[in-house]
Amino acid sequence: MNDMTPTREQREAKLEGMGCKRKRVEDARFTQGKGNYVDDLKLPGMLHGDFVRSPHAHARVKSINSEEALKVPGVLAVITAETLKTVNLAWMPTLAGDVQMVLADGKVLFQNQEVAFVVATDRYAADDGINKVVVEYEPLPPLIDPFKAMDADAPVLREDLAGKMTGAHGPRKHHNHIFEWTVGDKDLTDAAFRKAEVTIKEMISYHRTHPSPLETCQCVCSFDKIKGELTIWGTFQAPHVIRTVVALIAKIPEHKIHVIAPDIGGGFGNKVGAYPGYICAAVASIVTGKPVKWVEDRIENLTATSFARDYHMTTEIAATREGKVTGLRVHVLADHGAFDACADPSKWPAGFFNIVTGSYDFPTAHLSVDGIYTNKAPGGVAYRCSFRVTEAAYCIERGMDILAQKLGMDPAELRLKNFIKAEQFPYHSALGWEYDSGDYHTAMRKMMESVDYAGLRKEQAEKRAAFKRGETREIMGLGVSFFTEIVGAGPSKNCDILGIAMFDSCEIRMHPTGAGIARVGSKSTGQGHETTWAQIIATEIGIPSDDIMIEEGNTDTAPYGLGTYGSRSTPVAGAAIAMAARKIKAKAQMIAAYKLEVHEGDLEWDIDGFRVKGLPERSMSMKDICWAAYNSVPPGMEPGLEAVSYYDPPNMTYPFGAYICVMNIDVDTGVYTVRRFYALDDCGTRINPMIIEGQVHGGLTEAFAIAMGQEIRYDDDGNVVTGSFMDFFIPTAVETPHWETDFTVTPSPHHPIGAKGVGESPNVGGVPAFSNAVNDAFSFLGSTHIQMPHDFWRNWRAAKSLGLFAA
Length: 807
What we know:
single chain
């Protein structure tokens, strides 16, 4: 052999394909300040818009006077609901089948609701203008407590729904009721509870929080009056969906709407839906004929854009005395705020909360969810989770710990006793899902061995004894969490948004020199798609990752896709990429066979090209095939080498993981110390281990924030009291614990490359691990359940309620 001939290992390494720790190609521009964000965009003659917002949570709007505002130098227009009514845009549809005010129409329903839109020559003039708009309000009684929403004397919030006792998801049973959604066998579940030897029942609340991405929501709209075309640059996780929504609302032909999502500084679900700012900027551009930019500030983002969680879950588990679960019963009171603007697939008003059976073999279960209106901001987005899966995981993982405490069993051992077994997959859950693959026992035992779980429990027992002897005021908790997430929305048979099936897409075009471009229907908000998508293609067709350009976010060039959220990028878009690459490969094989003068079946794939079976010296590289595709294809074949794939997944994917948090808490101050956090994830085939590790670190940091202090909290008058980063907990490097990551690999049997998705798993599993650690720490003192968030103050209050010190 020629010493210069690359080895197989060298050829594989050159590709930097799947499994390689390829450095993120995006970071070259991000680390040098060369990212291209919406607010970087400056167009000739561009105007700026800003909102007049309501100080009240619930009030009638008696009048709006803009005379003084229009006298402010630079202020060109003040848009109100009355203005929008002239173009039938005062209300807009939500993704959940409700309607929402664009600007306050007759009344306001939450603090900081948009009341008027001031358009000016610059941001400063717009701000001066909003301070000169005079709004007369008549305050109304606010409804903040979701548990009082359906009281007989509860104030009517949505007067536009008067007399409508049927909503998008069925009957409404109260003027503040949105829907009731039920899944499972109620009779069989009730029977299981009647026969149960042991039961637990607990109200488990997952408080309201917010995705709070680094970059707030913003857009630039530019209407070309000559062409009748509208171009929108915006922070959109799903650009094609935004284009369709704008076409439906504004009645502009969809081919005359151009939506561009440039670099995005984090999304986490916050940038999926449509906001009044987008509509008002578009209307202002149409009216003025000039580009209009809208950029919200941090307080506006936290108080008025889509929140997450706010689920109040009455959780019951039935079991035998030996700890075998026999039934699960959950009722959820879901606080949706002033409008039902959840970003869930159309047929799933409570998202995929029916994954609440978790990783356990429940023979029967029943779930009911009641959605209600309150005087809070609308939303309910999947903040780094897949459509209410985080709430479901928290619900069942706290429930299993509470059951273990009642039975006097170790929480890890209770889980091992009830896991779905590897041989049961594909597994059909009691609430209707088909889990694709899993090996839960192996993952759990690897976690327990890695952290010396038995040794930690021994140390905890010694600390508890010392606490009772008065030798220490510090308690120790072990927070075990085992989650199964459902991601990859989704199959067209049960998933759509506004009637559009939730497929995704990829177009690959190879150039004559062996380089290529792939345009994808997903949209990165920091996940590293430009890196990992090229790695999939590299492995599939043998072209180095560095020779593949990835393009997303432009509806004029990318094929129609449903965007990035709910960990659907790899399960759906990643599959579309692999399938498009295989179409390329299939045509390449025909070209290679023609050039090598053999039958296609006589060829076999060999890393970066085809070779003749039994004659490895007769081969043709993929790079050479690309050149041949443009000058010497077989007779009757079209020149070129490109393919498009629209991938409709046959099923969801089901990543899982085993986490543990080791925490100490000083009962006199409530101050906690996270001593150790170990996270084992199984996301199927691992495309880029380095990016996976980064995703896990980010998700765990957000889980830490949520569990240990992050909250959107309202006072009784509906004022947001955590509306800035002064009060809303965002961990810095100082507070963030050290993360230990690990993995097992259980490929998805139906996914083209066996991948399952991982970006949101650490948030799903991390929150219950932290909460279980706090609750485990206090459990030997008589506590059953302490609600999140577990900040110092609440930990101190928990200690006080248990009589650990004098008032």
